[in-house]
């Protein structure tokens, strides 16, 4: 009898718990489970998308190496940019396209590619590379103010010497020796002692003294 009463008391306690708290706790558990499921699906989809983007990048590289018509390469690049705009593969492919256009002296097209990378890719290294190359492209077009503005793109400290050196190049091209010296000097100060670029920056600096 006592055992029966004890069981009844536990059942009543559970009913009270369910009525006052259990339903909310159950709802929270369901939400947590759905959240975890959503996160897992998102991660799997992200991995899948990265793989798909990498496959298109591989196709672009293969076409470029086999000297395929430029319109075919451009079509693949557009597909990659539209389908996976924030992927590293899209940024890599667009940087490659910008380099090709730069070598062909189609600076306005290269400029457009690099601006696309800056707008769509937030990885710090990619941002630094795109900003530096954009600065060089604009320098070739003698768009000095625009080049300096591009080189003011905020980047992590490790990448700032790259932009400072190119700013020095822009000022040197304008005949502004003091500003060029300042930027070359700052680039040297921030470069690691074993950096392979130190010698070149030092040569640029010495040539202006």
Q: Which word captures the global form? A: elongated
Fraction of helical residues: over 70%
Please tell me the overall pLDDT: 80
What is the H-and-E element order? HHHHHHHHH
**Total number of helices:** 9
Low-confidence stretches: 1-7, 13-18, 20-30, 36-42
Structural classification: mainly alpha
What's the SSE blueprint?
Blueprint: H1 2-65, H2 70-83, H3 88-103, H4 107-120, H5 124-140, H6 144-150, H7 160-173, H8 177-190, H9 198-207
What does this structure look like?
- The protein has 9 helices and no strands.
- It has helices at 2-65, 70-83, 88-103, 107-120, 124-140, 144-150, 160-173, 177-190, 198-207.
- It is mostly helical.
- The relative contact order is 0.06.
- The protein is elongated.
Which short descriptors sum up this protein?
209 residues; mainly alpha; 9 helices; 81% helix; disordered N terminus
Give a brief description:
This protein is mainly α.
């Amino acid at each position: 009898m006592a055992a029966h009463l004890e069981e009844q008391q536990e059942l009543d306690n559970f009913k009270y718990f369910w009525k006052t708290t259990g339903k909310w706790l159950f709802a929270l558990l369901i939400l947590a489970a759905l959240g975890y499921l959503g996160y897992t699906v998102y991660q799997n989809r992200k991995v899948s998308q990265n793989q798909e983007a990498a496959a298109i990048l591989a196709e672009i590289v293969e076409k470029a190496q086999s000297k395929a018509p430029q319109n075919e390469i451009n079509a693949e690049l557009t597909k990659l940019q539209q389908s996976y705009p924030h992927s590293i593969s899209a940024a890599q492919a667009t940087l490659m396209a910008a380099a090709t256009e730069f070598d062909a002296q189609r600076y306005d097209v290269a400029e457009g590619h690099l601006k696309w990378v800056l707008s769509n890719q937030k990885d710090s290294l990619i941002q630094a590379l795109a900003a530096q190359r954009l600065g060089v492209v604009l320098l070739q077009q003698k768009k000095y103010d625009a080049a300096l503005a591009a080189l003011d793109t905020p980047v992590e400290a490790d990448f700032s010497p790259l932009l400072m050196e190119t700013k020095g190049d822009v000022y040197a091209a304008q005949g502004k020796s003091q500003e060029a010296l300042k930027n070359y000097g700052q680039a040297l100060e921030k470069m690691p002692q074993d950096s392979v670029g130190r010698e070149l920056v030092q040569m640029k600096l010495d040539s202006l003294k």
